[in-house]
Design a protein that fits this description.
This protein is of the alpha/beta class and about 250 residues long. It has one domain: Rossmann fold (3-Layer(aba) Sandwich), CATH 3.40.50. Helix content is about 30%, strand content about 25%. The chain has 8 helices and 8 strands. It has an 8-stranded mixed beta sheet, sandwiched between helices. Strand 3, helix 3 and strand 4 form a beta-alpha-beta unit. Helix 1 packs parallel to helix 7. The longest helix is centred in the C-terminal third of the chain and has 14 residues. It is globular and about 55 Å long.
């Protein structure tokens, strides 16, 4: 028997949203993956680096997929539950996790790293990335692109025409170059998302808190009910994520 609206809401509201592992969504939502395989390429670069920094590591799950790390390996994270999760996961691997507010300056010396990485950073401070990179060092990252998952975001917030331009790879390229970085690789992707029940929606909006700032079940209960009814009537809610792979070298 199909779970009721109230039961699904409770399921999503009670799920653990710490860390950056989305396996809880198995059977409830799916998302295509970019063809370039960020985690695999990240591991390859870590294996030959001498000093690495992973910015906004989340719970450390992606970084921890690497088999080997350089002699100096550091990760930063701002959200306390993720700091705890990443510390437990990465410290045994020799990676130091530093609690950092994601605001400049980064708490590291100039030219401290030959590799700086990040997967889905919420904020990008190009001058700081360039500062902590050694000359010839590499920034390698997968960024969220413009208007990502805006079908869902705008369902709750209404049209967001100005925000749709944010995170555009052309703008990021210009900013990176202004900070003294040379773009050596840039790839983009638009990926299909299927959300199959309202529990997945609640989970996502509790976990990815910048999609609908200030989200709570109580505040958006009517809109959640509307979306639940839509899924029941038409099937999975379809959205699209955007991603770009970016590799930059400090001049």
């Amino acid at each position: 028997m199909t779970d009721t609206f109230d039961a699904l809401i409770e399921t999503g509201a009670s799920a653990d949203v710490s860390g950056w592992d989305f396996s809880w969504l198995d059977g409830r939502a799916t998302e295509e993956r970019p063809v370039w395989g960020y985690a695999r390429q990240l591991a390859d670069r870590l294996s030959i680096a001498s000093a690495s920094l992973d910015i906004q590591t989340g719970g450390g799950e992606v970084l921890a997929q690497a088999e080997t790390f350089p002699p100096t390996a550091v990760a930063t994270e701002s959200w306390p539950p993720n700091v705890i999760h990443a510390t437990r996961l990465l410290h045994p691997r020799g990676v130091v996790v530093v609690a950092d507010p994601d605001e400049p300056p980064l708490p590291f010396a100039d030219e401290a790293f030959d590799l700086v990485t990040s997967r889905h950073p919420a904020t990008i401070w190009w001058e700081e990335i360039a500062r902590v990179l050694q000359p010839g060092g590499t920034y390698f990252a997968q960024h969220v692109g413009p208007a990502s998952v805006f079908e869902l975001i705008e369902f709750f917030l209404g049209p967001q025409p100005t925000a749709r331009r944010g995170r555009h790879p052309d703008d990021e390229t210009t900013a990176a170059q202004a900070a003294g970085l040379e773009i050596v690789n840039l790839q983009t992707a638009r990926l299909r998302i299927e959300i199959r029940d309202i529990a997945a929606v609640v989970y996502l909006l509790r976990k990815v808190i910048w999609w609908v700032p200030g989200f709570s079940v109580e505040k958006y209960r009517d809109r959640l009910r509307d979306l639940h009814d839509l899924i029941q009537q038409d099937g999975p809610f379809i959205a699209h994520s955007t991603r770009h792979l970016i590799e930059a070298r400090r001049l």
